[in-house]
Amino acid sequence: MPFINTKTNVTVSTNQRETMKSRLGSDIQDIGKTESWLMLGFEDEVPMYFKGSDAPCAMVEVSLFGKASAQAYDAFTEHITNIVNEELGITPDRIYIKYAETQYWGWNGRNL
101, 70 in Cβ contact below 8 A? Predict the structure, then answer.
């Protein structure tokens, strides 16, 4: 049950969103999850500054029910970085990725 929210100061086209959706849906297996439970959010054209500059940058937040190993996070970080770089043209040194694990996750009117 992961949720991945990508916030960036560049424009994200419908085609880019669809491609990122497909690639993240495939790569989510890195952290032991499946696309069937994956929810994605995209926030583009957000006023953002990183290192004192408004050059293209992105913050990707990954929330998930349960845990994953450090090696799994390393692999997924590499994939997310490549996806954001290749699809949005944002250099890896201007991308942050944050992971948040939770033991409580609500769905369908109850907690899992």
Answer: no
Residues 6 or more apart in contact with residue 49 via CB below 8 angstroms: 57
Give CA–CA dist 3/101, Å, rounded: 11
pLDDT by residue (tens digit) across 33-76? Answer: 999 999 999 999 999 999 999 999 999 999 999 999 999 999 99
pLDDT for 1 equals: 85
What is the C-alpha to C-alpha distance for residues 34 and 27, in angstroms, rounded to an integer?
A: 9
CB of 33 closer than 8 Å to CB of 64: yes
The pTM for the full model equals: 0.94
Correct CATH for 3-111 of 3.30.360.10, 2.30.30.140, 3.30.429.10, 3.60.110.10: 3.30.429.10
Point out which residues pair with 7 in neighbouring strands: 43, 59
Q: What pairs with residue 95 in β-bridges?
A: 58
Q: Where would I find the H helices in the chain?
A: 14-27, 70-88
